Amino acid sequence: MATYKPWPVTFTSGSGALLRDTEGNEYLDFAGGIAVASVGHAHPRVSAAIAEQAAALIHVSNLYGTEPQQELAARLASLTGGMHSFFCNSGAEAVEAAIKLARRHAGDVKPGARTIVATDGGFHGRTFGALAATGQPAKQEPFRPLPAGFVHVPYGDADAMEAIVGDDTAAVIVEPIQGENGVVVPAPDYLGEIRSLCDRTGTLLILDEVQTGLGRTGRWFAHEHSGVIPDVMCLAKALAGGLPMGACLARPDIAAAFRAGDHASTFGGGPVQSAAALAMLDVIESEGLIENAAHMGELLMKGLDALFGSRATVRGRGLMIGVAFESDVSRAIASAAFDRHLLVNDVTPSVIRLSPPLVIDESDVARALDVLEEVRDEVAKA
Ligand code: PLP
């Protein structure tokens, strides 16, 4: 079905931040599979983990245990201060699980609280619950009616959140940085203010770290920049090195609200994707990719600022970067970059998003900036 408008290229292989097409052309990938290819394309350790696990056992369902899944749950717990995981297959499903968990938990401790407060411009996925939490009317309108019990307030405005969160609120869901809305970074104290509001009102704080999580912003999780600890956290995208996998994590006392049979996924946390995720977490650690994301992100942002600073705002954290223009030029820029075999994402009509693999080095940054300089001049002439 024509749900995508793909660029006219067919890729056959990749390595690090490079992709190769059917004609043998090389592309520098600064879109990163939309923030998925964090350890680079076809990382040998991830590929080997997938091949080994696929040769041993591919699927048994969650009626039985597998070692990779058990190890992955333990590994994620060790990265998150002991959170428990529910495994699924995508970001949207991680959000669905978080919403159900929040309402289930509220049923136990805050009876009557059903409402989920989300933010304007926020993006949480395309399934109905996640779409209802999403704060982008154009994506919602054609599919109404959506599930009830979702309200939206302006992003970055803790006072607006305070005015609406109350006895009927089960949870607040926010992205630490809004990705699909064009890499919108809130003020440094925003998450902390929401955290204390949630504490005061007995409301769960769900952080959607599907895009910001797992090293992309220069920390394991973006909430670490503000010192805020979520009650529930959604992960997906980079988690299994490119295989479909999502996870809804929660503090153990909150996770306990789900009883057997409350939620499920046939494929969630299967042994192949769990083995891939374990390999991807190993690579992030052993190759120092979190530090690299912070360092390369600074370099790239500085370079982008020098190139575009007079006519655009460069914003983001680590290797989650947006260049926000005053007019709708992002398609023209992405297209001119594509012609020069650099992939960037025109995430909104006026914002270019860069979310390259975290493995990029100085020469990749320099190459991307060289291309973008040419692109800037070409688009300015047009
Ligand atoms: N949440 C956030 C913050 C996202 O950026 C996305 C996807 O871009 C999703 C959820 C949905 O993820 P998926 O496309 O895997 O369903």
Structure in words:
The model has no long low-confidence stretch (mean pLDDT 98). It contains 13 helices and 15 strands. With 382 residues, it is of the alpha/beta class. The chain has a 7-stranded mixed sheet, with helices on both faces. A 4-stranded mixed sheet has the order 1-2-3-13. Strand 7, helix 8 and strand 8 form a beta-alpha-beta unit. The radius of gyration is 21 Å and the shape is globular. The two termini are 33 Å apart. It folds into 2 domains: 114 residues, Aspartate Aminotransferase, domain 1 (Alpha-Beta Complex); 243 residues, 3-Layer(aba) Sandwich (Aspartate Aminotransferase, domain 2). Helices cover 39% and strands 18% of the residues. The site of pyridoxal-5'-phosphate (PLP) has 14 residues, from helix 4. Pyridoxal-5'-phosphate binds next to helix 4.
CATH level-two architecture of the largest domain:
3-Layer(aba) Sandwich
Shape: globular
What name does the CATH topology of the largest domain carry? Aspartate Aminotransferase, domain 2
Low-confidence stretches: none
Bound molecules: pyridoxal-5'-phosphate
Strand content: 15-25%
- Share of helix, binned: 25-40%
Please compute the radius of gyration using only Cα atoms.
Answer: 21 Å
CATH superfamily of the largest domain: Type I PLP-dependent aspartate aminotransferase-like (Major domain)
Count of beta strands = 15
User: Termini, distance in Å?
Assistant: 33 Å
CATH class designation of the largest domain: Alpha Beta
Q: List the secondary-structure elements in sequence, H or E.
A: EEEHHHEHEHHEHEHEEEHHHEEHEEEH
Q: How would you classify the helix and strand content by structural class?
A: alpha/beta
Main sheet strand line-up: 4-10-9-8-7-5-6
Largest sheet: 7 strands, mixed
Helix count equals 13
Mean pLDDT over all positions: 98
How many domain modules? 2
